[in-house]
Amino acid sequence: MNPASMTRSAAAPEFRAAGTDLSERRRSGISRGPLIDIASAEDTGIAWDAEGAATIGAFTTIATIAADARIAKTYPGLAAAAGGLATPQIRHLATLGGNLAQRSRCWYFRNPHIDCLKKGGSDCPARSGNHLYGVAFDLGPCVAPHPSTMAAALSTYEATIVTDRRGDLSIASLLGDGSNGASDHALASGEMIRKIVLKTPLAGERAAYERAISRSYAEWPLVEVCARAVVTDGVFQFVRLAAGGIAPVPLRLLASEAALKGKPATPATIAAAASKATAGAKPLPMTGYKLDLLSGLIRDLLEQLAA
Q: From the centroid of its chain, how far is CA 138?
């Protein structure tokens, strides 16, 4: 018996909240372990502290986040990301914790007859196969981009994650750096996300989110970007940029942020920052187009925030 078959036959239990991703994996035979149904009233909903910062329960639905007027005013990039995710039906059921902990959307991973790294295999078949929707920043053995839109947006807001075992995890700590091709996150077996803690927004900050997709509705983004900025007297005083769809984990675009801070909010500055976003990229043979999409989204978002 090969190792992958042994892994499947002794599959670990999995949590099920809404099950929007899990149900699909069960139908295809990718997920075979016993299920643990979870629900917690105390981890549902949005709480606000005296300074105006939100804590969102992990069982809060994506639709609730997208429709919350105070979230839209205080964390507009997060609300826009939630509103653009999947379909209304899925948003109505899918939870924030589930979105963060979901599994890869790679078609090789989703094929029950293929043993990729995430299923105990020895290599990533997408690397030498069809990787049209793969990464443009090749950071590790797996070339599938991380599927969580909310993780990219929360990275922009520098949110922290609280589990039933650990507190104060950054998005980077939760999802890793892309070097572990066998895993989609750094949660231990049986560890559960309980809440997501956001910081108090800055005075005068604005934010926006955009995605590039291959069809109008219900499509996974090819590239997505969330941007926050404070522009005072025509100068970028504060900027945070994070992108999804381009790497095994959401990426903070630190070089672009540095190129904007303290600089005039002009088309030339924005164009220079957008070009910095692709520095260090290692696109696969089929994914170079994602770098053009990334630059274009950054320019569009920054021009909106600077207006």
A: 17
The rounded distance, in Å, linking the Cα atoms of 177 and 88 is 31
Judged by DSSP in three states, 69 sits in helix
CB-CB contact of 257 with 239 (8 Å): yes
Helix axes 76-84, 149-156, angle to 10 degrees: 170
Asked if residue 137 lies in contact with residue 251, where contact means CB atoms within 8 angstroms, the answer is yes
Q: In one letter, which amino acid is 118?
A: K
Q: Which pLDDT tens digit goes with each residue over 189-244? A: 899 999 999 999 999 999 999 999 987 666 789 999 999 999 999 999 999 999 99
Cα end-to-end distance, the chain, whole Å:
62
DSSP codes of every residue in 76-139: HHHHHHHHHSS-HHHHHH-BHHHHHTPPP--TTTT-TT---GGGT-SS-HHHHS--TTS-SS--
Q: Does the predicted model carry a pTM greater than 0.90?
A: yes
Residues 19-49 pLDDT 10s: 888 888 998 888 888 998 887 777 999 999 9
- Which DSSP state fits 11? P
Coil vs helix vs strand at 234: coil
**Each residue of 71-129: pLDDT tens digit?**
999 999 999 999 999 999 999 999 999 999 999 999 999 999 999 999 999 999 999 99
Structure tokens at 90: 């899925």
Q: Which of 24, 28, 26 is nearest to 114 (CA)?
A: 28
Distance CA 80, CA 65 (A): 9
